[in-house]
Design brief:
By secondary structure, this protein is mainly beta. It is 0% helix and 52% strand. The strands form two sheets. Strands 2, 4, 5, 6, 9, 10 and 11 form a seven-stranded mixed beta sheet that branches. The chain has a four-stranded antiparallel beta sheet with strand order 1-3-8-7, with no helix packed on it. β5 and β6 form a beta hairpin.
Length: 122
Amino acid sequence: QVQLQESGPGLVKPSQTLSLTCTVSGGSITANSYWTWIRQSPGKGLEWIGCIAYSATTVYSPSLKSRTSISRDTSKNRFTLQLSSVTPEDTAMYYCVREPLVAPLGRALELWGQGTLVTVSS
């Protein structure tokens, strides 16, 4: 069965870059899906960050685009999130998610990782 798992530091200092990796197991990064990062916080709820396709094409939330970079390494079945210039407002549970190409982005989040808490604090 395909599974997604997030990994990375749980604590990041303000102004630094948040970096997370999603590892895909039991399958591969395929061309019939988008590979997506989502976050959830008490204040903002669920927020779609961005996604990457097999082709390496990316789409980012307009509110975060200037600070966001998503990449993938298909040979290692991994995709990554980098969010720069973080502030305490970026504290959230971060999830990697698979969603289908045919659905509007953010509306058919079909497979989720378990999530990882990232705290931005000095």
